[in-house]
TrEMBL record, chain A:
Keywords (A to Z) from UniProt: Cytoplasm, Hydrolase, Nucleus, Protease, Proteasome, Threonine protease
Gene that specifies this protein: PSMB10
Name assigned to this protein: Proteasome subunit beta
InterPro entries: Ntn_hydrolases_N (IPR029055), Pept_T1A_subB (IPR000243), Proteasome_bsu_C (IPR024689), Proteasome_bsu_CS (IPR016050), Proteasome_sua/b (IPR001353), Proteasome_suB-type (IPR023333)
Organism taxonomic ancestry: Eukaryota, Metazoa, Chordata, Craniata, Vertebrata
Subunit structure: Component of the proteasome complex.
TrEMBL record, chain B:
GO CC field: proteasome complex
Name of the protein in its database record: Proteasome maturation protein
InterPro entries, alphabetized: Ump1
UniProt entry keywords in alphabetical sequence: Chaperone, Proteasome
Organism: Echinops telfairi
Family: Belongs to the POMP/UMP1 family.
Domain of life from the UniProt record: Eukaryota
Keyword Membrane belongs to the record: no
Length: 273, 141
């Protein structure tokens, strides 16, 4: 039997880490490419009949917008959805794995999946990788215990809250939510508040932009509302900046001749290479 | 044997071993490992490298220890006996084994982790040298 430590394992391979660190040490101007982050505003709140989640749609690569209309609300179970902020690939793969695991778990137990189970699975995965998997998630859904909303951070901590916001635009969105949240709101009020919160993030944070996506989850099912609102109009660039004479009124005019004396004249040839 | 036995198998450094028998006789692999340095061979190159390498072992240790505290000594003993029995059924050393019974015993046949998605050993592009590995298993090498 092959000794256990020599048996090939799946999962992450750290083969190139040494090489990368020695390359960065030897060639100081070389830097490894940065992962694409979502630079996000995501928010969620619990209302009377269920949970509503919202997100913007911009994905950034350092300071360049990589995707103007990406989907940040991921499916986990028919009545559980998850918004992801942080490194785009990490949130995508983590939520897809959580969704598959929940399906297997539900088939194995024969029961409907619960939001607390999803949160625990996500927490345990993220804690295993000590925050190197950069995924901040807001998990919301309705199960037998009612509507629930959890926010999970990259190192594995979580909070159960009536409203939550994460991402680079969380301050703007949280300010809006803190100000206007009421328990037991109706769907229209909750949707309006959520759109306002995400819009605050889009307008106030450079990393968030695009349009507002939302997902309404109630006891009967979930509805994904893509591009619910577009707070930012595309900028119309002027074609020509030409002003007719007389656009600016002339108030007064004073002419003063300057007497100049030519002192020295030199010619210098310019080298064009 | 109790959970103490598992602890002796934990690795606290990453040995630079290859699966092919020409490993000990080859010179330093510059492309894959970078410039040779004693520090690189003793210390892990990434904070997660050690914890990931020992992850399954640590999980088993923790589970057996909890089981021993709850149900007494015999429960983990019996389970470890079943683990050892099931690990005897393998394909030839240079071929990937499915380890299906081991997965079922561990409960990982119903979960997906990064081990199942990334770097699946069944699809690895390198294979150990068949003759040398079989001879090593039989103790002839």
């Amino acid at each position: 039997m092959l000794k256990r430590e020599l048996a090939p394992q799946g999962g992450f391979s750290f083969e190139n880490c040494q090489r990368n660190t020695s390359l960065e040490r030897v060639l100081p101007e070389l830097r490894a490419p940065n992962a694409r982050k979502t630079g996000t505003t995501i928010a969620g709140l619990v209302f009377r009949d269920g949970v509503i989640l919202g997100a913007d749609t911009r994905a950034t690569n350092d300071s360049v917008v990589a995707d103007k209309n990406c989907e940040k609300i991921h499916f986990i179970a028919p009545k559980i959805y998850c918004c992801g902020a942080g490194v785009a690939a990490d949130t995508e793969m983590t939520t897809r794995m959580a969704s598959s695991n929940m399906e297997l778990h539900a088939l194995s137990t024969g029961r409907e999946p619960r939001v607390a189970t999803v949160t625990r699975m996500l927490r345990q995965t993220l804690f295993r990788y000590r925050g190197h998997v950069g995924a901040s998630l807001i998990v919301g859904g309705v199960d037998v215990k009612g509507p629930q909303l959890y926010s999970v951070h990259p190192h594995g901590s979580y909070s159960r809250l009536p409203f939550a916001a994460l991402g680079s635009g969380q301050d703007a969105a949280m300010a809006m939510l803190e100000d206007r949240f009421q328990p037991n709101m109706t769907l229209e009020d909750a949707q309006g508040l959520l759109v306002e919160a995400i819009t605050a993030g889009i307008l106030g944070d450079l990393g968030s932009g695009g349009s507002v996506d939302a997902c309404v989850i109630t006891g009967t099912g979930a509805k994904l509302l893509r591009t619910l609102s577009s707070p930012t109009e595309p900028i119309k660039r002027g074609e020509r900046y030409h002003f007719a004479p007389g656009t600016t009124p002339v108030l007064t005019q004073m002419v003063k001749p300057l007497t100049l004396e030519l002192l020295e004249e030199t010619v210098q040839t310019m080298e064009v290479e | 044997m109790n959970a103490r036995g598992l602890g002796s198998q934990l690795k606290d450094s990453i040995p630079v071993t290859e699966l092919s028998a020409s490993g000990p006789f080859e010179s330093h692999d510059l492309l894959r490992k970078g410039f040779s340095c004693v520090k690189n061979e003793l210390l892990p190159s990434h904070p997660l490298e050690l914890s990931e390498k020992n992850f399954q072992l640590n999980q088993d240790k923790m589970n057996f220890s909890t089981l021993r505290n709850i149900q007494g000594l015999f429960a983990p003993l019996k389970l470890q006996m079943e683990f050892k029995a099931v690990q005897q059924v393998q394909r030839l050393p240079f071929l990937p084994s499915s380890n299906l019974s081991l997965d079922i015993l561990r409960g990982s046949d119903e979960t997906l982790a990064f081990e199942d998605i990334l770097n699946d050993p069944a699809q690895s592009e390198i294979m150990g040298e068949p003759h040398c590995m079989v001879e090593h298993k039989l103790g002839l090498l």
